[in-house]
Write a structure and sequence with these properties.
heterodimer, A: mainly alpha, about 70% helix, B: 4 helices
Chain lengths: ~140, ~100
């Protein structure tokens, strides 16, 4: 290889535009989860509104940062995709959703047996509504 | 003396490695990755050309590709990262180019 060719090759890579961006750090995501968890656990404590307000502000910032980082083109790679390694079966989530809806329905109706058909109908509706997203839900990440 | 790497030697592959390296889309210290579309725009090639060149680099173990599945195939996002082996090979290749360039 001649020195001119080498200089040209080096010039080509020097001429590449710079992209200086990094993804949202994982620790920030973990912090958001912790703050949200504290806010939820505060429950009926007297100071819950303070925690909820702080969590609200924090989450608003997180959403803003999330949008900002989502537009960036270089990110920190997910260290592990537990869903791909050991996927949680869909029935688990649908059962969980059904129980949650039953709980909500009971709170509204004051009667669990009234809540069950309401919850079942809501679950079926939700399943049908989100069926189109199954491709993304079943396999989130894999070798290209 | 550093040696030229035949896998990286074609200019498109060299530019791919350079774009990933300079943007920090490497495995060290923490693995980062770049969007396929961004890489394509940076080095100004077609999807097909980039994909073909990435196949060569991936076969040599120099890059890794991951696909984030979307609701449909055209919503998928492919992420590319320069592996540790690729980073070393690229650094050595650039060192060899620099040596050759300085000889002239």
């Amino acid at each position: 290889m001649e020195s001119k060719q080498a200089r040209d090759a080096l010039a080509e890579i020097e001429a590449l535009p710079h992209t200086t961006s990094t993804g949202m750090p994982n620790w920030l995501m973990a912090l958001a989860a912790v703050v949200t968890g504290v806010a939820v656990l505060a429950g009926n404590q007297a100071w819950q509104w303070v925690v909820l307000a702080a969590a609200g502000i924090f989450l608003a910032l997180m959403i803003g940062m999330g949008i900002y980082y989502a537009r960036r083109n270089v990110r920190e790679a997910p260290r592990q995709d537990p869903y791909a390694e050991n996927p949680t079966p869909p029935w688990f989530w649908w059962t969980l959703a059904t129980l949650a809806l039953m709980f909500v329905a009971r709170m509204i109706e004051g009667n669990l047996w009234v809540g069950i058909p309401v919850a079942a109908a809501a679950t079926v509706t939700a399943y049908l509504a989100f069926a189109q997203f199954n491709r993304a839900q079943v396999k989130r990440r894999g070798p290209a | 003396m550093a040696r030229l790497d035949p896998v990286i030697h074609p200019i498109t592959r060299l530019k791919i490695c350079a774009a990933l390296f300079r943007a920090g889309a490497t495995e060290r210290p923490v693995r980062h990755e770049m969007k396929f579309a961004t890489l394509r725009d940076l080095i100004d090639v077609s999807d097909a050309t980039l994909s073909k060149q990435l196949n060569h680099l991936e076969a040599a173990g120099y890059v890794s590709r991951w696909r984030d599945y979307g609701v449909s195939r055209n919503k998928d996002v492919v992420w590319v990262s320069l592996t540790t082996k690729g980073t070393e090979a690229y650094s050595e290749h650039v060192a060899a180019l620099t040596e050759i360039a300085s000889e002239g």
